[in-house]
Each structure stands twice: as C-alpha cells, then as structure tokens.
Design brief:
The chain is mainly β and 123 residues long. It is 0% helix and 50% strand. The chain contains no helices and eleven strands. Strands 2, 4, 5, 6, 9, 10 and 11 form a seven-stranded mixed sheet that branches. 33% of the residues are buried.
Length: 123
C-alpha cells in the first residue's frame, strides 16, 4: 500500500520556524521526485517546493524562496521541509506528493498524495 504521511505542522508565531516531514512507503522512493504543495481556505492548491529523484535538485516558488529549504533522506524514505521566517500568509494545509518523472507545479500530474498537515502562522 502506497503511503505518504506528513507531520510537523502546528501553530507558530510570525517569524518562527517549523520543519515538516513526509514519510513514504509502498513504492520505490528513490525513483520519485517529491513535491510540497499547500492549500489555504478558499484558494487553489499551489506548489511550494520540490526535490528531484535523480540529482537532488531543489526548486522553490517565489513566495517561499530564501525562507524554505527542502531535503530528502533516501535511507529513511523521508523528505523534509524546513520553514523559516514564517508569515501569516503561509497558513495552509501542506501536502507532500510523489511524481514518477520530474518536479513540476501541476498537482494533477502527481501520482501519490499525503493527507496533509495544518500550518497556522499567527501575526
């Protein structure tokens, strides 16, 4: 059974930090790019960051560039998202997803999804 399980969300004050984890099982983790997406109430799901399967290249969207860092530990089948300097506009449910070819910002293109973890940033 394929599973992606996010953890590490919570409530934090603006300027604070959180580290999200995405633990994968049931598929060949090393072969998949892993992306982080987020969805705020009333808004569409948007890409945040992605890490490739091949060379570990990392990608970020403009709103999080310079504040978030993605990494992966293939030995643990886990991807991390370190989020620093959090802002109230970062409040959303954060999802990790697996893509069998390469990183992209199209949610419908991803093969597997986690259930999400809530991040709330207070002002």
């Amino acid at each position: 059974e394929v599973q992606l399980v996010e953890s590490g969300g919570g409530l934090v004050q603006a300027g604070g930090s959180l580290r999200l984890s995405c633990a994968a099982s049931g598929f060949t983790f090393d072969d998949y790019a892993i992306g982080w997406f987020r969805q705020a109430p009333g808004k569409e799901r948007e890409g945040v960051s992605c890490i490739s399967s091949s060379d570990g290249s990392t990608y970020y969207t403009d709103p999080v560039m310079g504040r978030f860092t993605i990494s992966r530990d293939n030995a643990k089948n886990t991807v991390y998202l370190q989020m620093n300097s959090l802002k109230p506009e970062d409040t959303a449910v954060y999802y990790c997803a697996a893509h069998g070819i390469k990183c992209n910002w199209y949610p419908h293109a991803y093969d597997y999804w986690g259930q999400g973890t809530q991040v709330t940033v207070s002002s």
